[in-house]
Design goal:
atp-gated p2x4 ion channel fold, two-stranded antiparallel ribbon, single chain, elongated, about 35% helix
């Protein structure tokens, strides 16, 4: 039973939606691509190399990355505060796919 619960906790996911808007210029950008649909968003998992535009992160991987490799179980036992920072390195005057990685 404990193994099943541990597996469930590691498979839990978090989805991040970020949006910036400049109403004066009629411009809005989001981290979810226009080509993304419900099927894709319900099945993708973020991977910097293979799926960098997926906004869904596995909780176990997020905890490991944020804590320098600690396991979810270690953090659950000890506690932690995790801050997620977003960096948009983007020139909004140009094509999103080419200039906003």
């Amino acid at each position: 039973m404990e193994d099943a619960l541990r597996h469930y906790r590691l498979c839990m996911s978090v989805s991040f939606l970020f949006q910036i808007e400049f109403p004066k210029y009629g411009m809005r950008r989001t981290n979810i691509l226009e080509s993304s649909n419900t099927s894709y968003l319900s099945s993708c998992t973020y991977n910097n190399e293979t799926d960098p535009f997926c906004p869904v992160f596995r909780l176990g991987q997020l905890v490991s990355d944020a804590t320098g490799g600690k396991s979810f179980d270690e953090v659950a036992a000890d506690g932690a505060v995790i801050s997620v920072g977003v960096r948009w390195d983007c020139d909004l005057d140009w094509d999103f796919m080419q200039y906003c990685r």
